[in-house]
Design goal:
The protein is mainly β and 110 residues long. 13% of the residues lie in helices and 52% in strands. A 7-stranded antiparallel β-sheet has the order 1-2-3-7-6-5-4, covered by helices on one side. A hairpin with a 2-residue loop joins strand 4 and strand 5. The relative contact order is 0.21.
Length: 110
């Protein structure tokens, strides 16, 4: 399939990114990738990792996603959610002194 990729100042959310996968308010998109019905976003925020992870979890559950796996890592958290034939993984980690990195993967199982 065809792949799209954007990084840096030009990175933006693909137009067909799933509307029921909310993005973290105020975060900057630093990487955006798409292949078929699979999406990958890297976001950056100045908020603490715990705050960002909790907000992402609450927002996904409010959109009908079910939390499947939750794992704490030394630098943050990994959460996996399921909805119908789709999965969404949110990895939140500390980046440097004052930045938090949020990676969102949304995939559709064929």
């Amino acid at each position: 399939g065809e792949a799209e990729y954007s990084v840096g100042g030009g990175a933006k959310v693909p137009a067909d990114f799933p509307k029921d996968v909310p993005l973290y308010k105020g975060a900057t998109v630093v990487v955006s990738a798409k292949q078929g019905k699979n999406f990958l976003l890297h976001l950056q925020t100045g908020d603490e990792p715990k705050k960002a992870a909790a907000a992402c979890k609450t927002a996904l559950e409010a959109n009908g996603w079910t939390a499947e796996v939750a794992m704490d890592t030394p630098n943050g958290t990994v959460h996996t959610f399921k909805k119908d034939n789709r999965t969404c993984t949110v990895v939140v980690s500390k980046q440097g002194e004052d930045k938090t990195f949020i990676q969102i993967t949304a995939a559709t199982e064929e």
